Amino acid sequence: MKVFNTLSMKKEEFVPVEEGKVKMYVCGPTVYNFIHIGNARPMIVFDTVRRYFEYKGYDVNFVSNFTDVDDKIIKKAIEEGRTADEVSKQFIEECKKDMAGMNVKPATKHPLATEEIDGMIEMIQKLIDTGYAYEKNGTVYFRTRKFEDYGKLSHKNLDDLQSGGRSLLVTGEDEKEDSLDFVLWKPKKEGEPAWNSPWCDGRPGWHIECSVMSKKYLGEQIDIHAGGEDLVFPHHENEIAQSEAANGKEFAKYWMHNAFLNIDNHKMSKSLGNFRTVREISEQYDLQVLRFFMLSAHYRSPLNFSADLMEASKNGLERILTAVSNLKYLSGTVEIQTMTAEEKEAFEKTKEFVTSFENAMEDDFNTADAVSSVFELVKYANTTANGESSKEYVDGLRAVIVKLSDVLGLIVEKEEELLAEDVEKLIEERQMARKERNFQRADEIRNELLEKGIILEDTREGVKWRKA
Ligand code: AMP
Ligand code: ZN
Asked: What is the spatial distance between Cα 152 and Cα 232, in angstroms, rounded to a whole number?
């Protein structure tokens, strides 16, 4: 399997750190608003990467954080007279609903920055003790030049950065030893959330959060670290510096970055007024259409969002859904049960579509070509299955289409719906688990239901549920 690695700027053969396992960390959103369709791109892309590894039999440990302490969250909280915690909790829940709608699997673990402060203080202290960091008036900085490999991910030259950095120095940062140094810990300002630390009451810088959460949940060396291309510099470059300086070993073997999503050929931004949330899209389309749209391009190509392209995606997805539903109908009506010799031969041909699908995915997750293979298979099914076919043949075709679609995270077959009483039973079990403080089981149940498209809402009147 080939993976494009931003470190080498080449496609490299994927060799896991530990055989049969993939340890993957994806930088998650800052939760101060509903997620926008740009944020949805890495979610869908890397969920598909995860699904393909799972299809190949790897055991994937997938960690993705929520950045729940940040200037934007604090600003929003002040504007609305709420606490930062209330704002972030609200938008984490909203984000999880959008993820469920896009059929993005919950991560193995979704750590929250605010719950990992001790680990951050520990890593910062270690960096200070080893000379990689220093404190000035309560602020702790990373001593960038001491980390010799700095710039290896973004392929930037320190001296170029230095000349750019000088003019970018903001007030209060003139105490830095070097304009390249970046913040690990900063003192609190009035009204901001803060934690005790050996340096001052304050909060962590953004980059240290991911270094610490990745280490805690995946270990010192991981296979894949991923996010949108805007994160290459400085976020991921700084993460590498912190983690490799603190742990003394290579942080991530492969760095994957998705290209940006634009709207009508413009950058999406609040000021241009062309900002679209996933929630807005869900009012017009099933979010499966958004997922299908995202996968219709290679993740490293810029992607343009437009009404026309969404309509085309809706029609494309519909073609697969219709084929699957026809095959299901045939399965219940055809008379012959088992495949004839001729059908066996015809069924062998489906392997070619599976192979071309796999070849596309093995080539740095070329989902655009993988989708084409599914279309070819659908066409083949439409032309070879009919009322004269055997049940075994039509069921076989349907199973292959469903399996490949599932690797892409596309739900093309309605599962037997969970009965309301089953949902109620699971909710009761979750309440019991919570009472017994077995939060792990409670979370498991919530995630199990989410995967089946059931969203739980804890309200004052008790737990309510609805379909995604
Ligand atoms: P943020 O909340 O800004 O930290 O973004 C969360 C994730 O979404 C990061 O991986 C970003 O790189 C990614 N992202 C933000 N905007 C876009 C966009 N327009 N297109 C693709 N990815 C994006
Ligand atoms: Zn990160």
From this structure: 10
Read off the pTM: 0.88
298 forms bridges with which residues in the sheet? Answer: none
pLDDT higher than 70, residue 144: yes
- Amino acid letter at 383? T
Distance, CA of 63 to CA of 54 (rounded, Å): 15
Question: Is 230 in contact with 216 (CB distance < 8 Å)?
Answer: no
Per-residue pLDDT tens over the stretch 153-175: 999 988 888 876 655 555 566 79
The 3-class SS string of 407-460 reads HCCCCCCCCCCCCHHHHHHHHHHHHHHHHCCCHHHHHHHHHHHHHCCEEEEEEC
The Cα–Cα gap between 129 and 123 comes to 10
Verify whether ligand 1 is closer than 6 Å to residue 27 (CB atom): yes
**CA dist., res. 254 & res. 240, Å (int):** 12
| Structure tokens given for 76 | 């929003």
Q: For ligand 1, say whether the CB of 30 is within 6 Å of any of its atoms.
A: yes
Q: Is 33 in the pocket of ligand 1 (CB under 6 A)?
A: no
Which two tokens mark 93? 């829940």
